[in-house]
Automatic annotation (TrEMBL):
It comes from Aestuariibaculum suncheonense. Residues 208-239 form the C4-type zinc ribbon domain. Residues 40-178 form a coiled coil. Gene3D superfamilies: 1.10.287.1490. This is C4-type zinc ribbon domain-containing protein.
Length: 260
């Protein structure tokens, strides 16, 4: 819409409806992707979480292995002490010394029993953690496969539509630059507040597009006259007549065919 000529209301309505058709086409492309980008992000987060969990489980196994080694060392030390105290009992001078060494031996025997109990408990923990690790690995493998599939699906869609989407986004910006700022602001506001992003709609069977509310005949005549911008009192959408809408649709279909 050239800025060096007088811009009529009809020019504005046509430009606004063209802009709507472009933006609706962008919406369609994005709807084809649907929830895929979100699914991919969720799967990436899940895979990352499973990897962290796996790392922690493996790390906890190493800690338990170190605890077992520590207890085994303690047992060997206790056995060495028992041997030492038993040998010393052979050379005691009185019962007090003998009893004192006997208590030391008994204490070390208890230390061995306690260490052996801990080792058994640690081994049970290891088996339990190994089961969890195996389950986590299986889950991780399944989620990674699913993520790979979804990424491939998303990449295929992006490859098909990204060029068209970017071209349409540029066209949308071009059209906005050719329309008065106040109208673009109104269009954007309405688009954000209505279902399906439809801010400019044609009259269909006596009602605004996508609505069941009938437009009074006098208002329909005014819309067809294209002398002023009229909005639907129920939805706030900008209204255009069916003929104008059809003419602009045919025009924009040719543009879309070139872009795609």
């Amino acid at each position: 819409m050239a800025k060096n000529k007088e811009v009529t209301v009809e020019d504005r309505l046509r430009a606004l409806y063209d802009l709507q058709l472009i933006d609706s086409r962008i919406d369609e492309i994005r709807n084809v992707r649907g929830e895929l980008p979100l699914e991919v992000r969720d799967l990436e987060d899940e895979v990352a979480g499973l990897n962290i969990r796996l790392e922690k489980l493996v790390s906890s196994l190493e800690v338990i292995d170190n605890d077992i080694t520590s207890r085994k060392n303690l047992i060997e030390e206790a056995k060495a002490l028992i041997k030492k105290y038993t040998e010393q009992q052979k050379n005691v001078r009185n019962n007090r010394e003998y009893n004192s060494l006997t208590k030391e031996v008994e204490f070390q025997e208890l230390e061995i029993q306690l260490a052996e109990k801990h080792i058994k408990e640690f081994k049970v923990q290891i088996e339990q953690k190994k089961e969890v690790i195996a389950e986590t690995k299986e889950r991780l493998k399944e989620r990674e496969t699913h993520l790979k599939h979804k990424k491939s699906e998303l990449n295929d869609i992006l490859a098909e539509t990204e060029k068209e989407e970017q071209a349409l986004i540029q066209k949308s910006e071009d059209y906005k630059n050719e329309i008065e700022e106040r109208l673009v602001s109104a269009y954007t506001r309405i688009r954000q507040n209505v279902k399906n992003g439809l801010a400019v709609v044609p009259i269909e069977r006596g009602a605004s597009g996508g609505s069941f509310f009938t437009i009074p005949p006098q208002i329909q005549v005014e819309i067809a006259a294209r002398k002023k911008i009229i909005t639907d009192e129920h939805s706030g959408r900008i209204l255009v007549d069916a003929q104008l809408a059809e003419e602009q649709r045919e025009k924009m279909e040719k543009l879309f065919a070139k872009i795609s």
